[in-house]
Design goal:
The complex is a heterotrimer. Chain A is mainly α. Chain A has helices at about 15-50, 60-90, 90-125, 130-155, 155-190, 205-235, 240-255. Classes of the chains: A mainly alpha, B mainly alpha, C mainly alpha.
């Protein structure tokens, strides 16, 4: 990771003009890793993992459902981390990174909810049950939407950055509280007490497929966030000289293509 | 290998709608997200190029469509912007 | 230091007293939302009795939400907020005073009216003390959490909807434990655990929310 000829420390990439080309170089690699891992994970999931004894083939939704649910939570934590870094160290890039991650996190939330509903219908008999996990997932989606709506509504970039960072942190503090309260509520009301984790019956190949898909989701998130943050950097830094050079190069490339 | 035939594979033990519905929507959303990200990149580049041309011709002022608040680094960077503009055809 | 707290508290209470109509509108909203439920689900007493705790809590929560935008809006418009932020007094202190004044002028009336509405829904006798205690512990948490949202959305177009989207997910635990307390009392398991959790939540919100709110006000006014 460290390149002695390119600068003293990794911190130089906190500067937008250094981070912009780095993001451009890294994103395709992560996208490639994501594609390869997805193919491997789906192959494991569909052709190696055995049929589930109790659920039949429906369980194969797990290879997308669980990684999406994990990613949606993980991305929120990363967002909160970058928000805290931005507020403490006053680095503009951290705010941009958390804003670039939010739509992907929300996307994974939708995927987890959708696949959960389609999995729930044959196993529980209903698309939606007020299960603790599903409910927390829905609330997490609202937290994402609130963050995105707030940062998009505020026009002043400085205020948008900081307001978004604050609400991300407030949300992160509240996520455990929400999860705990929903769990509590769910055990008291004892609706459909079906657990998703039937750990003992889980074959090793199922777990392997799930983990590979989780890494694929992770690499995909990195690739998309890096791609998304690049135009955001250009927009913010449009007064800087290096952006002019980048834009000129971009224009030539587009001109050459048509 | 789990499947006797491709039709058995697509049938998913009778759960085709649920399994392929899940994977289908996921891949649609991923494709949509990637398309939006690249579209946004193209839009931003062309909008900023137009903006820089306008700034170069009028000698400063104005901004692109959204997020047009001037930041504090505005002043010192402006000279660089204009010299850059003169080189741009 | 305490002087600032008392001065801001007194000023805000005085302003709230002069604008009594706003408080009455909040109360009227609370009452009318509760009255809508029998029209919606039917006037079957058993059903109403069963849903009473949840209905009262949801209505109280919405009444709080609807009045939140008033918390800083007027001070933002007339410049008082900036004066306060520029002053040397610690922001946490007067933020807390403002939230307390807000709760006294909107939350407390809601808590006081709730038992009367409980009568409308035929809530069982034994549940009234728990209903009042749970609301008295829960609505200050709503005010504290809502203050952060109100500070972040200060002066934004469409701020009301945005405020709701921001704070409603955060209100869910309060609703769960508040309405849960009343239901636990009714079911005979006792409401102590719920009320303790609500009290803990209030302590946590008191410790964290004023700082977040002060930071949010700085972000929104600079």
């Amino acid at each position: 990771m460290s390149r002695p000829d390119r600068g003293p420390s990794i911190l130089r990439f906190a500067a937008p003009q250094n981070f912009y080309p780095l993001a451009g170089r890294l994103a395709p690699w992560f996208a490639g890793i994501a594609a390869v891992l997805t193919v491997v994970g789906l192959w494991l999931g569909f052709f190696v993992a055995p049929t589930d004894a109790t659920q039949g083939e429906v369980y194969r939704v797990i290879f997308i459902h669980v990684p999406a649910a994990w990613m949606s939570m993980f991305v929120y934590l990363v967002m909160a981390f970058w928000s805290a870094v931005g507020l403490v160290m006053n680095t503009r890039l951290s705010f941009l990174m958390s804003q670039a991650l939010a739509p992907t996190g929300a996307m994974f939330c939708v995927v987890a909810l959708w696949t959960g509903a389609l999995w729930g219908r044959p196993t529980w008999g209903a698309y939606w049950v007020w299960d603790a996990r599903l409910t927390s997932q829905a609330l997490l989606l609202f937290l994402y939407l609130g963050f995105i709506a707030l940062t998009r509504t505020i026009e002043d970039p400085r205020r948008a950055d900081r307001a978004g960072a604050l609400i991300a942190l407030v949300g992160a503090v509240n996520v455990p509280v929400i999860y705990f309260s929903v769990q509590w509520w769910n055990t008291l009301h004892q609706g459909a007490s079906v657990s998703l984790t039937r750990a003992p019956s889980m074959a090793a190949t199922m777990l392997a497929g799930m983990l590979v898909m989780a890494f694929a989701a992770w690499a995909y998130t990195l690739a998309v966030a890096l791609w998304r943050v690049r135009p955001m950097i250009l927009e913010r830094e449009r007064h800087a000289e290096w952006v002019g050079a980048v834009l000129t190069r971009e224009a030539q490339r587009q001109g050459g293509r048509t | 290998m789990q499947w006797e035939s491709w039709s058995a594979f697509w049938n998913m033990g009778g759960a085709a709608f649920f399994v392929w519905g899940s994977y289908g929507l996921t891949f649609v959303l991923v494709a949509l997200e990637l398309a939006l990200v690249f579209q946004r990149r193209k839009d931003t580049v062309s909008r900023l190029l137009r903006w820089r041309k306008a700034v170069g011709r009028n000698g400063g002022g104005g901004g692109p469509g959204n997020g047009s608040r001037n930041e504090s680094r505005n002043g010192p960077a402006r000279a660089g912007v204009e010299s850059q503009e003169n080189e741009t055809p | 230091m305490l002087n600032t707290f008392v001065a801001v508290l007194r000023r805000d209470l005085l302003l709230a007293w002069r604008g009594r109509a706003d408080v009455l509108v909040t109360l009227a909203f609370f009452v009318i939302v509760v009255c809508l439920f029998p029209f919606g689900v039917g006037a079957e007493p058993n059903l109403l009795r069963a849903i009473a705790p949840g209905v009262l809590w949801v209505a109280a929560l919405l009444a709080c939400l609807l009045s939140l935008h008033r918390l800083f809006a007027q001070d933002h418009v007339d410049g008082t907020l900036e004066q306060l932020l520029l002053s040397s007094e610690p922001a946490v202190l007067w933020v807390m005073a403002k939230v307390l004044a807000f709760w006294l002028s909107t939350g407390l009336p809601v808590v006081a009216v709730a038992p009367v509405l409980g009568l409308l829904l035929d809530l069982e006798q034994g549940a009234y003390p728990v209903l009042v205690i749970s609301l008295a512990l829960g609505t200050p948490i709503l005010a504290l959490l809502g203050a952060v949202g109100a500070a972040l959305t200060l002066g934004l177009r469409g701020g009301g909807m945005l405020l709701a989207l921001l704070v409603l997910p955060l209100f869910v635990p309060v609703l769960i434990f508040g309405a849960g307390a009343v239901e636990a009392e009714l079911s005979g398991t006792g409401a102590t655990a719920h009320l303790l959790l609500l009290g803990g939540g209030l302590a946590g919100a008191l410790a964290l929310a004023p700082w977040a709110c002060a930071a949010a006000l700085r972000v929104s006014t600079e």
